[in-house]
Amino acid sequence: MWTSFIGFMASGKSTVTRLLQTGTSRPHVCLDDLIAARTGLSIPEIFAQQGEPEFRRHELDALASLAADRHLVVDCGGGIVTTPAAVDLLRRRGVVMWLDAPWETIRSRLLAADQASRPLVGGLGLPGLENLYRRRRPLYAAAADFRLDGGSLDPSQVARAAMLRGLLWQRRREEEQR
Q1: Can you list the domains of the chain with their CATH numbers?
Q2: Based on the number of CB atoms within 10 Å of its own CB, is 58 exposed (0-12), middle (13-18) or buried (19 or more)?
Protein backbone atom coordinates (compact mmCIF):
# COMPACT_ATOMS: atom_id res chain seq x y z
CA MET A 1 0.00 0.00 0.00
CA TRP A 2 1.21 3.46 -0.90
CA THR A 3 0.71 6.54 1.21
CA SER A 4 0.80 9.34 -1.35
CA PHE A 5 0.94 13.05 -0.64
CA ILE A 6 -0.53 15.68 -2.91
CA GLY A 7 -0.78 19.42 -2.45
CA PHE A 8 0.41 22.72 -3.83
CA MET A 9 4.11 23.55 -3.98
CA ALA A 10 5.52 24.62 -0.62
CA SER A 11 2.70 22.93 1.29
CA GLY A 12 5.28 20.80 3.14
CA LYS A 13 4.99 17.49 1.28
CA SER A 14 8.74 16.80 1.16
CA THR A 15 9.23 17.49 4.86
CA VAL A 16 6.22 15.43 5.95
CA THR A 17 7.00 12.49 3.67
CA ARG A 18 10.56 12.27 5.01
CA LEU A 19 9.23 12.32 8.58
CA LEU A 20 6.66 9.66 7.71
CA GLN A 21 9.38 7.51 6.14
CA THR A 22 11.34 7.71 9.38
CA GLY A 23 8.29 6.96 11.51
CA THR A 24 7.12 3.98 9.46
CA SER A 25 10.40 2.65 8.01
CA ARG A 26 8.72 2.64 4.60
CA PRO A 27 10.78 3.66 1.58
CA HIS A 28 10.27 7.27 0.51
CA VAL A 29 9.94 8.15 -3.18
CA CYS A 30 10.08 11.75 -4.38
CA LEU A 31 8.57 11.68 -7.87
CA ASP A 32 10.51 14.78 -8.94
CA ASP A 33 13.80 13.12 -7.94
CA LEU A 34 12.79 9.91 -9.73
CA ILE A 35 11.91 11.86 -12.90
CA ALA A 36 15.24 13.71 -12.80
CA ALA A 37 17.14 10.43 -12.36
CA ARG A 38 15.24 8.74 -15.18
CA THR A 39 15.59 11.63 -17.66
CA GLY A 40 19.00 12.98 -16.67
CA LEU A 41 17.43 16.45 -16.54
CA SER A 42 16.39 18.66 -13.65
CA ILE A 43 12.70 19.54 -13.33
CA PRO A 44 13.34 23.15 -14.46
CA GLU A 45 15.25 21.80 -17.48
CA ILE A 46 12.38 19.51 -18.44
CA PHE A 47 9.92 22.40 -18.20
CA ALA A 48 12.20 24.70 -20.22
CA GLN A 49 13.21 22.19 -22.90
CA GLN A 50 10.13 19.98 -23.20
CA GLY A 51 7.26 21.89 -21.61
CA GLU A 52 4.75 21.01 -18.92
CA PRO A 53 2.75 18.43 -20.95
CA GLU A 54 5.90 16.35 -21.48
CA PHE A 55 6.79 16.72 -17.80
CA ARG A 56 3.33 15.34 -16.90
CA ARG A 57 4.01 12.34 -19.18
CA HIS A 58 7.33 11.73 -17.39
CA GLU A 59 5.49 12.07 -14.06
CA LEU A 60 2.91 9.43 -15.00
CA ASP A 61 5.61 7.09 -16.35
CA ALA A 62 7.64 7.44 -13.14
CA LEU A 63 4.57 6.79 -11.02
CA ALA A 64 3.64 3.71 -13.06
CA SER A 65 7.19 2.37 -12.67
CA LEU A 66 6.79 2.04 -8.89
CA ALA A 67 5.96 -1.41 -7.56
CA ALA A 68 2.26 -1.68 -6.85
CA ASP A 69 2.72 -4.16 -4.01
CA ARG A 70 5.35 -2.24 -2.02
CA HIS A 71 4.61 -0.12 1.02
CA LEU A 72 5.83 3.30 -0.10
CA VAL A 73 5.59 6.91 1.00
CA VAL A 74 5.18 8.87 -2.24
CA ASP A 75 5.91 12.61 -2.47
CA CYS A 76 4.02 13.85 -5.54
CA GLY A 77 4.55 17.09 -7.39
CA GLY A 78 1.97 19.83 -6.97
CA GLY A 79 0.47 19.39 -10.43
CA ILE A 80 -0.03 15.63 -10.41
CA VAL A 81 -3.75 16.17 -9.87
CA THR A 82 -4.00 17.66 -13.37
CA THR A 83 -3.39 14.19 -14.84
CA PRO A 84 -6.49 12.03 -14.23
CA ALA A 85 -4.60 8.80 -15.00
CA ALA A 86 -2.05 9.66 -12.31
CA VAL A 87 -4.77 10.36 -9.75
CA ASP A 88 -6.47 7.07 -10.64
CA LEU A 89 -3.19 5.21 -10.17
CA LEU A 90 -2.54 6.85 -6.80
CA ARG A 91 -6.02 5.95 -5.56
CA ARG A 92 -5.79 2.34 -6.77
CA ARG A 93 -2.43 1.81 -5.05
CA GLY A 94 -3.22 3.25 -1.65
CA VAL A 95 -4.31 6.19 0.41
CA VAL A 96 -4.00 9.76 -0.88
CA MET A 97 -3.30 12.55 1.62
CA TRP A 98 -3.83 16.19 0.66
CA LEU A 99 -1.42 18.44 2.51
CA ASP A 100 -3.35 21.70 2.48
CA ALA A 101 -2.05 25.09 3.55
CA PRO A 102 -3.57 28.57 3.18
CA TRP A 103 -2.32 30.76 0.34
CA GLU A 104 -0.57 33.18 2.71
CA THR A 105 1.45 30.32 4.19
CA ILE A 106 2.36 29.04 0.72
CA ARG A 107 3.27 32.56 -0.40
CA SER A 108 5.58 33.20 2.55
CA ARG A 109 7.29 29.83 2.11
CA LEU A 110 7.82 30.47 -1.60
CA LEU A 111 9.30 33.89 -0.91
CA ALA A 112 11.69 32.42 1.66
CA ALA A 113 12.78 29.41 -0.45
CA ASP A 114 15.09 28.80 -3.37
CA GLN A 115 12.77 29.38 -6.31
CA ALA A 116 15.16 28.02 -8.95
CA SER A 117 13.88 24.48 -8.40
CA ARG A 118 10.26 25.53 -8.97
CA PRO A 119 9.79 26.30 -12.67
CA LEU A 120 6.29 27.74 -12.32
CA VAL A 121 7.34 30.38 -9.78
CA GLY A 122 9.41 32.41 -12.21
CA GLY A 123 7.03 31.90 -15.10
CA LEU A 124 3.79 32.84 -13.35
CA GLY A 125 4.85 35.19 -10.57
CA LEU A 126 2.91 35.39 -7.31
CA PRO A 127 -0.43 36.55 -8.81
CA GLY A 128 -0.35 33.72 -11.35
CA LEU A 129 0.62 31.20 -8.68
CA GLU A 130 -2.25 32.31 -6.46
CA ASN A 131 -4.63 31.79 -9.38
CA LEU A 132 -3.13 28.33 -10.01
CA TYR A 133 -3.44 27.52 -6.30
CA ARG A 134 -7.16 28.41 -6.36
CA ARG A 135 -7.77 26.39 -9.54
CA ARG A 136 -6.05 23.29 -8.17
CA ARG A 137 -7.73 23.21 -4.74
CA PRO A 138 -10.87 21.43 -6.04
CA LEU A 139 -8.65 18.88 -7.80
CA TYR A 140 -6.79 18.12 -4.58
CA ALA A 141 -10.06 17.80 -2.67
CA ALA A 142 -11.49 15.40 -5.27
CA ALA A 143 -8.36 13.23 -5.37
CA ALA A 144 -7.70 12.95 -1.63
CA ASP A 145 -8.91 10.41 0.86
CA PHE A 146 -7.86 12.75 3.68
CA ARG A 147 -7.05 16.46 4.03
CA LEU A 148 -4.24 17.34 6.43
CA ASP A 149 -3.57 20.83 7.77
CA GLY A 150 -0.17 21.89 6.45
CA GLY A 151 -0.58 25.48 7.55
CA SER A 152 -0.95 25.53 11.32
CA LEU A 153 0.33 22.11 12.39
CA ASP A 154 3.99 21.29 12.91
CA PRO A 155 5.30 18.84 10.25
CA SER A 156 5.78 16.12 12.88
CA GLN A 157 2.13 16.54 13.93
CA VAL A 158 1.08 16.25 10.29
CA ALA A 159 3.16 13.08 9.88
CA ARG A 160 1.56 11.53 12.98
CA ALA A 161 -1.91 12.45 11.72
CA ALA A 162 -1.05 10.89 8.36
CA MET A 163 0.06 7.67 10.04
CA LEU A 164 -3.20 7.44 11.98
CA ARG A 165 -5.36 8.24 8.97
CA GLY A 166 -3.43 5.72 6.89
CA LEU A 167 -4.10 3.02 9.46
CA LEU A 168 -7.79 3.92 9.55
CA TRP A 169 -7.95 3.83 5.77
CA GLN A 170 -6.23 0.44 5.65
CA ARG A 171 -8.53 -1.03 8.30
CA ARG A 172 -11.60 0.25 6.46
CA ARG A 173 -10.32 -1.24 3.21
CA GLU A 174 -9.67 -4.62 4.87
CA GLU A 175 -13.21 -4.65 6.31
CA GLU A 176 -14.68 -3.84 2.89
CA GLN A 177 -12.83 -6.80 1.37
CA ARG A 178 -14.26 -9.27 3.90
Answers
A1: 2-177 (3.40.50.300)
A2: buried
Side chain identity, residue 148:
L
Alpha-carbon gap, residue 150 to 171, rounded angstroms:
24
Say which residues have a Cβ less than 8 Å from residue 79's Cβ, sequence separation at least 6: 52, 56, 59, 136
- Over the stretch 13-51, which tens digit does the pLDDT of each residue have? 999 999 988 888 899 999 999 999 999 999 989 988 999
* CA-wise closest residue to 80 among 166, 169, 2, 175: 2
State yes or no: pLDDT of 58 exceeds 70: yes
pLDDT range class, residue 121, cuts 50, 70, 90:
low
pLDDT, position 150: 87
Q: How far apart are CA 174 and CA 57, in angstroms?
A: 32
What's the gap between Cα 89 and its chain centre?
13
- Determine contact, residues 75/28, Cβ cutoff 8 Å: yes
CA distance 15 to 122: 23
